[in-house]
Design a protein that fits this description.
Keywords: Isomerase. Its EC number is 5.6.1.3. This is Plus-end-directed kinesin ATPase protein. Helices cover 39% and strands 25% of the residues. The chain is an alpha+beta fold. The chain binds adenosine-5'-triphosphate (ATP).
Length: 413
């Protein structure tokens, strides 16, 4: 079976960075002050948490107040749907054969899981994206054939587990010449509806490692990656064209300082591993940001499983959105500024996107049939042309007689 790869046209895309500030929790309202101002739909101001600064300190710039601007900024009153509406065009590309990655980045308790998974009243980006994909598929279902499958994994203590398999073993990463980094043995389940994926997501989330820390009652101890693969087959008279789009939705584990979360033993080890991979991610963001400004820089993807999995989303074939989540509480000032610092660097990151137009599986027999049909067509056109030419080369008298004959021939039955 021959395979024909259609030429892909590449386009450069810049990583989209959105910042989302959650509201103060009930507990925080009692002991913390709000230091975040989202001044417009792109700008965020982090106020100096130290109220003792006097006027002179402020005008002499001895303040820790910081200002940032991003592609989008969302205040505590914004819902996940508000965020989603700004990124939905990226998701829609998946059914056209484009890859997309959405990841939430922020310190522990800043609202990453809330943003990605959400609640019943305020569904998160994972849920909203799935509905978009299936609604778009419904529209084009009459002309094209779609196949949707999903996988859900977690990286816990630098080990990959399949969240769609009960008591999954350790999985390994492999480099595939055609598909890039793949997780060997990861279950890929075919699904017919968004509800089925949501059911799988729910099961996967119940298997995810979470712990109660002092900062967050259900703190994610692992990085979770939900991947939705859409295979679209378009049939036309020349055979079939296959488009393959992939959406990766990533909920990272929370980074924290051991002193702050009051943890020890296993939890402390988890924290060290989480921080190691988040540090590796931060280093990759740094290097990629520098690469855009100063030219080539080494990007240390291989320093963690997480960065190897996210490699495509950070520099390969993907339209990527980073949602930086922050807490408005004054005691989170350092975490907030740190998150915004990396979000600011991520704005420089560029990816190259192209449609994954797969092999056109047309049998030799199909080509033979097409050639035969074309041969018949050419013969017919040649005959028509010869007849027209002979008409033109006839002498005028002959032509008149000929036309008369044709005319007589027409009216006589
Ligand atoms: N936009 C929001 N509106 C209301 N509550 C929110 C919002 N965002 C987050 N929260 C609440 O804040 C708390 C922490 O959120 P979440 O668990 O999503 O943080 P996280 O960043 O995923 O933390 P970790 O990294 O420790 O897993 C939760 O109680 C959550 O319900």
């Amino acid at each position: 079976m021959p395979s024909i790869r259609a030429p892909a046209t590449k386009q450069t895309a810049t990583l989209m960075v959105a910042v989302k500030c959650r509201p103060l929790t009930d507990l925080e309202r009692l002991r913390s002050r709000n230091i975040i101002q989202v001044t417009d739909d792109k700008s965020v101001v982090v106020l100096d948490p130290d109220l003792s600064k006097d006027y002179l300190d402020r005008i002499q710039n001895r303040t820790k107040e910081k200002r940032y601007s991003f592609d989008h900024a969302f205040g505590p009153e914004c819902t996940n749907l508000d965020v989603y509406q700004r990124i939905s065009s990226t998701i829609a590309g998946v059914i056209q054969g484009l890859n997309a990655t959405v990841f939430a980045y922020g310190s522990t308790g800043s609202g990453k899981t809330y943003t990605m998974v959400g609640t019943h009243q305020d569904p998160g980006l994972m849920v909203l994206s799935l509905h978009t994909i299936f609604n778009l598929i419904k529209k084009d279902k009459s002309s094209d054939v779609f196949e949707v499958s999903c996988s859900y994994l977690e990286v816990y203590n630098e080990v990959i587990y399949d969240l769609l398999v009960k008591s999954s073993g350790h999985l390994e990463l492999r480099e595939d010449p055609e598909h890039g980094i793949i997780v060997a043995g990861l279950r890929n389940i075919k699904v017919q509806s968004a509800d089925k994926i949501l059911e799988l997501l729910h099961i996967g989330n119940s298997r995810r490692k979470t712990e109660s820390t002092e900062v967050n009652a259900t703190s994610s101890r692992s990085h979770a990656v939900l991947e939705i693969m859409v295979r679209r087959t378009r049939r036309n008279q020349y055979g079939s064209q296959v488009l393959r789009g992939k959406l990766a939705l990533v909920d990272l584990a929370g980074s924290e300082r051991a002193s702050e979360t009051n943890i020890a033993g296993q939890k402390l080890r988890d924290g060290a591993n989480i921080n190691r991979s988040l540090l590796a991610l931060a280093n990759c963001i740094n290097a990629l940001g520098k690469q855009q400004k100063k030219g080539l820089a080494y990007v240390p993807y291989r320093n963690s499983k997480l960065t190897r999995i996210l490699k495509d989303g950070l520099s390969g074939n993907s339209r990527t959105v980073m949602v930086a989540t922050i807490s408005p509480a004054d005691d989170q000032y350092h975490h907030t500024v740190n998150t915004l610092k990396y979000a600011d660097r991520a704005k420089e990151i560029k990816t190259e996107i192209h449609k994954n137009i797969g092999t056109v599986d047309t049998h030799v027999e199909d080509y033979k049939r097409m050639i035969d049909n074309l041969k018949v067509e050419v013969c017919r056109l040649r005959e028509e042309l010869a007849e027209k030419e002979s008409q033109l080369t006839l002498k005028p008298a002959e032509r008149a007689a000929n036309e008369e004959l044709i005319f007589v021939g027409c009216i006589k039955p």
